[in-house]
Design a protein that fits this description.
Length: 259
């Protein structure tokens, strides 16, 4: 380790930094760490595969929420899609920041949410839910520039699903009109969520790509091919031939490099 010091008034105190090395030494150190990073990635994929084999819990109670158009059920929150992720955000009287802001931690999480069109393309809906009235939620979303659907909890949903005191994501799947709880993640697990991939990895169906270890019969398509511009999913029902060509070339290049 090396020590960088400063004696200028008001600057950062001295800190012990890693050694300064040449490019080959730096590349060697990175390659050494990359072995562990790839092992961690494979372990994360294996964990997601176990998650897809979690038992499901039937949701027997008829929960009701308040939305921009009035009362809706838990089933309505799916918006016709097969999967649903509900994040309970703290925005209600008594929360620090009320009524101008929601909880700072929940707001930081909301700022990380990727464009929802990509989740929707995998038959998955993400919504937020709080106890604040809809008028306050609409105002907050406009102020902060958030686009996710956001509903008002009107009954014991938060208590029943482990988010009455703190935040958390509950994942659900539906079979017709039957709704099942498939997973729950909270505390520090929440901080890793926000990307399309992190959300899909906590769902029962996963990313729905053919490389995944999923139970037989689960929906799966080739990777890359379903990707699209967020404003083009509706217009392009099948992968564009040019994108298929480009993504095939990319996959081949990756395989050659890894080999």
């Amino acid at each position: 380790m090396t020590t960088h010091q400063t004696d200028r008034k008001g600057e950062q105190p001295a800190m012990r930094t890693p050694p300064i090395v040449s490019r080959p030494e730096w590349e060697a150190a990175r390659e050494q760490l990359l072995v562990k990073e790839k092992a961690q990635m494979r372990a994360r994929d294996a964990l997601a595969a176990e998650r897809r084999r979690m038992p499901w819990m039937a949701v027997e109670k008829a929960y009701q929420f308040e939305g921009p158009q009035g009362k809706v059920s838990l089933l309505d929150l799916f918006e016709g899609r097969r999967q649903l992720i509900v994040y309970r955000a703290f925005f209600e009287p008594g929360v620090f920041g009320w009524p101008e802001h929601a909880c700072r931690g929940c707001s930081l999480g909301a700022d990380q949410v990727a464009h929802l069109a990509h989740l929707n393309a995998r038959d998955t809906t993400l919504v937020y839910a709080s106890r604040a009235p809809q008028a306050d939620i609409v105002r907050l979303k406009a102020r902060m520039g958030w686009e996710m659907p956001w509903y008002t909890i009107t009954d014991s949903f938060d208590v029943d699903f482990g988010v009455d005191q703190w935040h958390g994501h509950n994942a659900f799947i539906r079979d017709g009109d039957k709704v099942f709880r498939t997973y729950f993640i909270n505390n520090r697990g929440d901080e890793a969520l926000g990307t399309t991939w992190s959300y899909l990895d906590i769902t029962a169906l996963g990313r729905q790509e053919i490389w995944e270890d999923s139970p037989e019969g689960y929906p799966q398509t080739p990777p890359y091919k379903w990707w699209n511009w967020h404003d083009n999913y509706g217009a392009e029902a099948a992968p564009h031939p040019k994108w298929v060509e480009v993504s095939d070339a990319g996959e081949a290049a990756f395989r050659k490099r890894d080999a």
